[in-house]
Each structure stands twice: as structure tokens, then as C-alpha cells.
């Protein structure tokens, strides 16, 4: 009897088609960034940018009248945290897309999971080589450092035309840093400069005496740093404390005001190439609007990671709206799997006028962006706050 019941139950189960997930309303969009750990120095800015986008885009009607709901999952600073956040967003929260993770190092581990689940990923801050190549469902709105970073070297040469001897330092345990340093090292060669020493460190390091001693010994007149925020900030600080007087170019890891308290007044004059500038408003009313709203909400100006997170949400919302326009069907009437596939295509069509100017996503998932900037850090007398002051466009 028992056997018959089990057999019957099996037959009934098999006859019942699996219930396909529908898209929930409000439309869930995953935000997988670092809200804890050292990487939260970047992640907090991303949360601010994303939240502002949610508020403003919903106030403007969301997706043709349907609101969006951001679902935040903390990735912390490592690969395991990112993998876990992605799994929760995909399987439990059933998001239509994931914006994240914060680091390229995390993207290489977590993005394949979303790719296998055929769910679009929009990288808000992944700038290493090879990110879009992870898979068909992986894209980014953060310009790769291959396009951004060399601008800062050119600016350093304008400031000091007799510049020659370059010391290169990078975090060897981080995918972005290892990628960015190859871009810098290639550009150094192309620009006719000489690499006099290459020094490695770890993102967890706090003592940089060995590296600084090598820089001083090599008689460098430019130091180029590829690391994350806390490590790079400490490196800048110790370079100055131990007597280095030359120019410093920082990579994307120094692109956050949350790094300013680490090197304090010694952050002054560090040059950083940027994919966003709050000052670039003349040609871009969207940025003017965004920068004013950000200032009103957070009592400080937006920096690059906030602007990029805002843009990532904006791009997803506009791509969703395009789907409704083209199909005549409301997002909430789609099955989740169909919508995720349609969204991946929609993201890659048309252009988006964002705080970073006009951008688009190539079929490969790579961002196309026109305008980049170089700024220098100018610290306030309090030694904790400061600004990226535009030095070139
Ligand atoms: C990357 C980066 C980091 C500096 C972003 C926070 O550019 O990991 O790709």
C-alpha cells in the first residue's frame, strides 16, 4: 500500500509542470557590493549611489509606472562573500539582474554563477581586463583601466616635462591591481619613460618600508600605485613620511574620498585618472542634476563609485523600459527566465545618458564611454576630508 501511495505521488508530481517564476513587483534588482570589510570603503559609496538612483527613478515612475526595489546583499571583501551574495540574489530573491560585485577579484569568482543562471550582471566598478569575457550575461558600465589609467601618466608628464624614472608598485593578490599595473607598465614604455623598479605588495599589508626603501634607492621621480584603498593610502603616507618628494599617480583604488583619512594631509597632489567628475556638468545636465541631488541627500559631492552605481541602476531601469516598449508587454507579465534573457539583450542596445556622459554597452558587454578625467587630491585643513580637483579633461 505504502509503495502504491509513493508511486502515485511520483506520478502526480511528474504530471505537474514546474511552476515558472514570474517577475515580482516591485521589480527586484540585486545590488551585490561590499558593505563590510576594507572593501566597504568603495562599497559604501556604491550603496549611496544605488539608493539615490532607486529613490529618484521610482519618483519618476520607475519602469513605466512599475516601481523597482533594490535588494542589497553584502559581498564583504572576498570571493566567498560575493559568491554567497550572488546565490542569494539569484535563487532566493529572484532578481532580474545583479549590479556588482565591487572588485574584479570578486567578479571572476561570482559572475560565472550568474552567467550559468542566465541572469545579467552589470559591473559597476570592475575595471580589470577580461571582465566582459567571463560570459554572455556579463557586462559592465565601469570603463576598463586600459582606457582610463594612461591619462594620469600623460598628466604627470605635463606637470613635470623632464620626468623619466618611474617606480611601479602593485598589489599582487588582487586581480584588478595586477591588471592595472600591466596597463601602466605598457603605457610607461610607450610614453618613453623608464621603469626603474617594480615592487609588489599585498592588499592586507600595512607596513611598506621595504617598497619605499626600494623606491628611494631607485631614485624615482614618479611613483605609480595599483592597489585597493587602505593599502594604497598607507603606501602614499609612508612614501611621504620616509622622504619621497616626487610625483605620485594612483590607480582606481585611490579613486575614493573614503581613502583620504588613511593618508590624511599626505594624500595631497596624488594624481588619479577618473571615469567620472562631479565638475563635468556643462555638457551634461544629467550629471548636474545627479550631483545636486547627491549633495542634498548626503551633504557631500558624489565621487566616481557613487556615480557609477547610480548609472548602473539607471541603465537597468532604462533597459527594462525598452523591453516594455518593444514588446508591448508589462515586465510583471514576463516569466523570470524570459525577462532575464530579454534584459541581457536590451542592456546592449541603444545609449544611456548617465552622470558619466553618454555610454552604451557593446554586444560583448564592454562599456563604451567617451569622456575621462584626471584629478589631483586636495586635502582640507582637517586632514580627513578633501576633494578630487579636476586638472585635465
Ligand atoms: C576593480 C577596481 C576596484 C578598485 C574597484 C573598487 O577597479 O576591482 O576592478
Q: Tell me the name of the CATH homologous superfamily of the largest domain.
A: Response regulator
What radius of gyration results from the CA coordinates? 23 Å
- The CATH class of the largest domain turns out to be Alpha Beta
CATH topology of the largest domain: Rossmann fold
CATH architecture of the largest domain: 3-Layer(aba) Sandwich
Secondary-structure-derived class: alpha/beta
What strand line-up does the widest sheet have? 7-6-8-9-10-14-15
Query: Can you list the ligands bound to this structure?
Result: (3S)-3-methyl-2-oxopentanoic acid
Distance between the termini: 80 Å
Along the chain, the helix and strand elements come as HEHEHEHEEHHEHEHEHEHEHHHEEEEE
- The averaged pLDDT comes out at 95
- Number of H- or I-type helical stretches: 13
Count of individual domains: 2
Low-confidence stretches: none
Largest sheet: 7 strands, mixed
State the shape: elongated
The count of β-strands is 15
Helix content: 40-55%
Approximately what portion of the residues adopt beta-strand conformation? Answer: 15-25%
Topology of this structure?
Layout: H1 2-15, E1 27-33, H2 40-59, E2 68-74, H3 79-92, E3 98-99, H4 104-116, E4 121-123, E5 138-140, H5 145-148, H6 150-159, E6 165-171, H7 175-190, E7 194-201, H8 209-217, E8 222-226, H9 229-241, E9 247-250, H10 260-263, E10 271-274, H11 285-298, H12 304-327, H13 336-347, E11 352-354, E12 357-361, E13 367-369, E14 373-379, E15 386-392
Helix pairs in contact: 2-12, 3-4, 12-13
Family: Belongs to the leucine-binding protein family.
Pfam families: Peripla_BP_6
Domain Leucine-binding protein: 26-378
